[in-house]
Amino acid sequence: MDQTEFRLRFTLHPLAKQDPAALPHQGLRKAAVLIPLQEIDGELNLILTQRPMHLRAHPGQISFPGGKIEASDPSAIMAALREAEEEIGLCRENVDVIGTFPAHNTFTGFEITPVVGIIKQDFTLRLDPGEVADCFTVPLSFFIEPRHRHRKEFLRKGRYYSVHFIPYQQRFIWGATAAIIDHLCRHVSLPEEIR
Fold it and tell me: Where are the alpha helices (DSSP H) in 119-161?
């Protein structure tokens, strides 16, 4: 799928008011992530990062650039753009924000607002080693294929939770990142692609 087709599909489908996977509870820490889409050889790719092993929270996990919404951030969109610039060197002026998804609540205590953005021009990665151990791209077409996206129920503190996961090559994408990817794919898929 190229940028033109993605934009068309994204705007044709109405955005849900609430993430169907959101867990209702109060007192969540607000965060935002950028879903950066980059066209490479005529095909859109998602840019993902891997967190360093030295971090206390979610070491080694695959994630989108993003983090906590600071008091100085005027919006979730600006927080996501700021974090992407700090973490991978993606200048905020180089991102065309085309929308946001409803906040995704996690059982680890975060309310994450996903911000969808298309990268306007190629850029040079500058990874912050304190936040990012690695950065890589995955073709959106891989994620669109339903057989690549999985969900399993887990029991935690007497309650069942759905956990999304996506194996990709030698990597394992799971949790909120996989759930947000699933939401994105369902949003832009045609009926015959959902299965």
Answer: 140-144
